[in-house]
Amino acid sequence: MGKRSMALGTLGGLVLAALAVLGGPEAAWAQARDFPTRPIVFVVGFAPGGGADVFARALADAAKTVLPQPIAVENRPGAGGTAAAAYAAGRPADGHTILFAHAGSSIITPLITNQPSLKWDAFEPVARIHAEEEWLLVQPDAAWQSIDQLVTHAKANPKKVRVAGSAIGGIDSFVVLSWKQAAGIDVEYIPHEGGGPATLAFLGKNAEVLVGNVSEVAQHIEAKKMVPVAVASEKRSPIFPEVPTLREKGWEVVLVQWRSVLAPKGTPAPRVAALAEAFQKAMGAGSWKTFNRNAKAVDAFLGPADFRKFLAAEEERFMRIIDQLGLRKK
Amino acid sequence: MTVLEGLGAGFMSAFEGARFLAMVAGVAWGVIGGAIPGISGAVAMALALPFTFALDATTALCMLAGVWAGANYGGSIPAILMRIPGTPASAACLMDGYELTRQGRAAKALGVSLVCGTIGGVASIVVLIAMVLPLGEVVLHFGSPETFALAVFALTLLAGLAEASFLKGLASGLFGLLLTTVGLDSLTGSLRFTFGRTELMTGVDVVAAMVGLFAVSEMFHRIAHPEDVPDVMVGRAYTAFPTLAELRELWPATLIGTIVGLIVGVMPGAGATASSFVAYNEARRWSKHPELFGKGSMEGVAAPETANNAVQGGDLVPTLALGIPGSNSAAIMLAALILHGIQPGPFLLSKHGQLVYTLFAGLLIVNVLMIPVGLVILRLCLLALRLAPPVLVAAVLALCVIGTYASELTIVNPWTMLVFGILGYGMRLSGFSAAAMVLGMVLGVMAESELRRSLIISHGSWTIFLTRPITAALLFLTVGVLVYPVVFGVLRRRRARRAVTAPPIA
Prior knowledge:
The complex is a heterodimer. Chain A is of the alpha/beta class. Chain A contains twelve helices and eleven strands. In chain A, the strands form two sheets. In chain A, strands 2-1-3-10-4-11 form a six-stranded mixed β-sheet, with helices on both faces. A five-stranded mixed β-sheet of chain A has the order 7-6-8-5-9, with helices on both faces. In chain A, β6, α7 (171-183) and β7 form a beta-alpha-beta unit. The radius of gyration of chain A is 21 Å and the shape is globular. Chain B is an all-alpha fold. Helices cover 72% and strands 1% of the residues of chain B. Chain B contains 22 helices and two strands. A two-stranded antiparallel ribbon of chain B has the order 1-2. Chain B starts with a helix and ends in a 5-residue tail after the last helix.
């Protein structure tokens, strides 16, 4: 039956393609460039319905108004997103294949499993698109309601403060481990299979602190089931501007859950630039803005050159944490 | 808006426009997807997800609800007819279901599975509608220690699954448990037993392994023993619904299935597969004819089939009350909401009440729709059984490859399936239990990670398993269940001996 769905999907894609070719703002684009000449395949290393997939589909949808060709999302889940990287790396580097990337799939997993051929620098960085903030939250009835009080309490009671978050190797765990070290406290990290189970455990009072990305916790903050005490971003969050960053407290912990696009190594620079430009334009679309608002994500666009620099810095930072944890395969 | 008013409006809205048709289509695809080995409920929903983009949010949810309900039922069709569970959740029903087919009672078994599944589905949705908010609070009482205790309780089932020899059953279960240690350990981030293969990073896929153990090994068996294929056409009737008298006899099993399904569904981390095995075992424990289980008991079909449909209501509790998915299937419902621009979370019910009530109505409708749609598809499946055996075996094997590939779109899974198919055939020849192994694989992840997490929560103290009431009760039950038959057996033997030595009384 998978076959039938694929056939119908292709049909849908053709209809979309036909619609896209018929006029619109993209006519100007088509005249100016010889690219793209056929639908672009957006390889996503995670299953349909997950955060990465939803992101890719929203971006592909927004890009419809900009590009003369549709973007078709192709899910290739497995091996923490690296199966898709291996697949994308083997496709022609002509700009018609792009790859979803986040810290986990393109830095952390390749580092841990020692597979440099699947790491970000084996690809061409196209653009960083958006990011979700990472929050530290406490129980609404706790005696500590600010990050300073929490740290004082944690210092006085080593190993007593439990922090719930997603699996070790994910951004959540890296936020806590870097914060622990920077603030000189000893807290217990409780890893869960994902953000959902971690949130449940926290709501069930099995932990004093929750670390989670904003999309998973914002609704619960509104419902007064948790109180944000700090954000691990560079600047204060536009969503809760009264909450301090970890950085302004003197702890250099800046980690966000960014989502981005890579292209296979050797994709011509003008095409990479064209794709980046298209995504930047697409981020102005109404559908993208609605998606971002609902996902509580903030736009974090970086073009090819800046994104490459960012990735190099990010890799160095992750490498330090991974080595401290002893996760790297020798 | 009272619940009844909301539900009334929900029913009106559920029949608006093309919604009803979308539900019929959803159920039909769900039953077909569920019947294909390798395509579980969540996968069938994920495959249907792109089709819902063009629909409005409410219609999309109703359609996905249909796929979900349909797949719960669809899995039992090949389980009963061919000893091939279409979904892991239907692995428990094949033990008696296929035995009934051998006895020429396939029609009745299919009827019981359909009717009891519908009863379980409808009952769980009714409980969901009546108690979604209070139950949302209950979910929070199920933490890691509780889920661990449930896994331990469910592990006692291994004893019951030992078909030929207790020791071999136990060994099969333990091997299944061991297999779950392969892959990325989410509690430490380290790789275990992957031997440098990235394919093993995410561990052994339970669905692919199950398809291999059951479906592929059954096909090998049919190739080796073409004479050992029951004539499904016995009696000619396609489906025989249980009579009222039979339903009265089955109602304890159905009730057990519903309760087990709801409780296990509400617990995070435990799913339809665990629920159907637990329900099977509980039904046997409370049955008037426990000796019939494994030899063609209708109760052995009714209980697991009720349970895996009743899980739906339980899964939706945290999903709707807290915005946290209770299972993979529920996660796809949430993804559909997000894709339609609706933020799931604790305010879903208050902000999008109309949508939620329409979903409730839709859930009730699709569970009932399962009967007519299920019947039609069942006929098609029975037609397929008329194929010449070599064609049928080839077709089933092809479907297995497609199904396991479609579940994650990686070629690793069909290979896993083949390896486990060979292993499963070997196990079958030497009397090891595939069901016990699948159960071990399902419970292994649950037991291990929840145990370790519990100990972090308790700062390393084992007393956490005694101080939390639900955990302690479940573990106490486990001990009771293990000790009772031993003590009972000793008493009975002693009584028997006395009866032999004592002079017969009139």
